[in-house]
């Protein structure tokens, strides 16, 4: 048995749950870039980032079609444009550093996370998982780019990526406020959020392992 709780109460509880989850992670799992990255390491880290921006663009574009609410549709469309721009600036930076994204091998765990997002039938599942949870946490992580990469790469994050992220987080909150007005939707969003935290953790661990094996971390 459970009872419907107000949307605001639901959001507050879910945000607090996320906060507890991320606080409890060991410090090396709170970052994508544990140390300063140069040369091959920077190129590989940026290629990994490029893939996330690229595949994120594609699955988000499909989400537009699953959303009925006109305001949400447009907010998601705006995010699609942001993520496409992020992918483009990453490609350019990888090239400037002497690498190429065409030979990037996505990690199976990385692809899996996006497949799960893409498989969600209800938009509140996607928004709870990605925007409300991963992107909320990502705002902190993206700040680290400013000190972990060379000056020009840091500038790219500062100018072309980081300023867009608060809007994506806001879309998560706005979307859940609109969609999670009943018990079923709230439970769907909650479960998607819990699942996403683990899927995100799994792929970032796989990324870290591969970087270490290649002597890049
Ligand atoms: Fe992005
Ligand atoms: Fe984003």
Description:
- The protein is mainly α and 217 residues long.
- The protein has a single domain, classed as Heme Oxygenase, Chain A (Up-down Bundle).
- Helix content is 77%, strand content 0%.
- It has eight helices and no strands.
- Helix 2 runs parallel beside helix 4 (108-119), helix 4 (108-119) packs antiparallel against helix 8 (183-213) and helix 5 packs antiparallel against helix 6.
- The chain is globular, with a radius of gyration of 17 Å.
- The mean pLDDT is 96.
- The site of one fe (ii) ion has 4 residues, from helix 7.
Topology:
Blueprint: H1 7-24, H2 39-66, H3 70-96, H4 108-119, H5 123-148, H6 151-161, H7 165-179, H8 183-213
The chain binds fe (ii) ion (FE2) (2 copies).
Residues 53, 83, 86, 161 line the site of one fe (ii) ion.
CATH architecture: Up-down Bundle
**Spans with pLDDT under 50 lasting ≥5 residues?**
none
* Class by SSE composition: mainly alpha
Oligomer: single chain
What radius of gyration results from the CA coordinates?
17 Å
Query: What do we call the CATH homologous superfamily?
Result: Heme oxygenase-like
What is the helical fraction, as a range of percent? over 70%
User: Mind telling me the CATH class?
Assistant: Mainly Alpha
Instruction: List SSEs in N-to-C order.
Output: HHHHHHHH
Number of helices: 8
Q: Bound compounds, please? A: fe (ii) ion
